[in-house]
Write a structure and sequence with these properties.
319 residues; Peroxisomal Thiolase, Chain A, domain 1; 5-stranded mixed beta sheet; binds acetyl coenzyme *A
């Protein structure tokens, strides 16, 4: 499997830290120092599925393929206004594709899981061109009175087209169930048969930030080491570490742990905040469109999030 196209899209409204400080008790200085975030894009008056479809269109255009060439769509999404149908089915209609579609929900780790699944489908030989879209709207999951969570996130979508070819080296995925560390519950319809009245769910995502921080560093470093071991290369041999953009301090800690310079860890969290599973394909698209990726570059992807789910994947850039 190789990546043959990338695309990304964001809502039009940029919300700076200063703007957030007008709504809740925080400051640009606190957010910047603790997270590396300066601003994020937030859905205001556009349809979320149009942003997702825009990223998909751009990835297809970058790959030289059109929607009729796509054999399968995998969409990573944590929450959108539809429980059903799937977001991938909605996007399929907008982009005019006619292939089968599936959604996956692995929270922020979705891109790495989608790459792994796409590789397996291509290996079987049933599919040849797969569109992966990671589309997230985490600002709609937050309690905007909780200053320790709402400042972190931004909305957006990133997409890649993958195809038969040489590029995928290895991946390592893991899930260790720990639901209380980071979750959001939503209300379900009542029935006449429920034995107990259900409590109404919390107003937004609940997160133990310190615990997430510790696990993110521990599991990301472990996943990367496992992939390095499997492929027999060292961290020095990796050109780029493209990590989930959750918090710049998390990325800096992982870089120190791997004894690698920060110049190999590109970031765009300053501009976009944490866009959940969309953060890696958005960053990859920035690198691709700015001409920073060269044929033969080794790219280590690593992502982590609620579950606790994490994974790393090594690919050679062969576009
Ligand atoms: N502005 C000002 N002060 C704040 C804010 C804020 N936005 N948020 C919290 N504080 C205060 C707290 O109230 C606390 O004050 P106190 O000492 O008077 O009690 C103080 O700052 C320290 O709070 P901590 O929560 O200990 O701050 P910490 O340094 O841990 O930073 C943060 C919090 C940024 C959330 C950090 O824990 C973090 O980044 N964790 C990882 C979270 C993450 O990345 N989640 C997403 C990953 S998974 C996924 O992407 C779905």
């Amino acid at each position: 499997m190789k990546i043959i196209g990338t695309g990304s899209s964001h809502p039009s409204l940029a919300v700076t830290n200063d703007k957030i400080a007008q709504i809740i008790d925080t400051s640009d200085e606190w957010i910047w120092r603790r997270t590396g975030i300066k601003q994020r894009y937030v859905v205001s008056d556009e349809r979320f599925e149009d942003i997702a479809a825009d990223a998909a269109f751009k990835a297809m255009e970058n790959s030289g393929l059109s929607s009729s060439d796509i054999d399968f769509i995998i969409c990573s999404n944590t929450l959108n206004e539809y429980t059903t149908p799937s977001l991938s089915a909605i996007i399929q209609g907008i982009i005019g594709a006619s292939c089968p579609c599936v959604d996956i929900n692995v929270a922020c780790a979705g891109f790495v899981y989608a790459l792994d699944a796409a590789n397996a489908y291509l290996q079987i030989g049933k599919m040849h061109n797969i569109l992966i879209i990671c589309a997230e709207e985490p600002t709609r999951m937050m309690n905007w009175k909780d200053r320790s969570t709402c400042i972190l996130f931004g909305d957006g979508a990133g997409a890649v087209v993958v195809s038969d070819g040489e590029g995928f080296e290895a991946s390592d995925l893991s899930t260790s169930s720990c639901t209380e560390m980071l979750y959001q519950k939503r209300g379900l319809c009542s029935t006449p048969f429920l034995k107990q009245k259900e409590e109404s769910p919390d107003a937004g995502a609940v997160m133990d930030g310190r615990e997430v921080y510790k696990r993110a560093v521990k599991y990301s470093a472990r996943d990367i080491k496992n992939v390095l071991m499997e492929t027999g290369i060292t961290a020095d041999d990796v050109t780029w570490f493209v990590l989930h953009q959750a918090n710049k301090r998390i990325i800096e800690t992982i870089a120190r742990y791997l004894k690698q310079p920060m110049s190999k860890f590109p970031t765009d969290i300053e501009r976009y905040g944490n866009t959940s599973s969309a953060s890696i394909p958005i960053l990859l698209d920035d690198l691709n469109r700015n001409g920073l990726l060269k044929r033969g570059d080794r790219i280590m992807f690593s992502a982590f999030g609620a579950g606790f789910c994490s994974g790393a994947c090594l690919m050679v850039w062969n576009k």
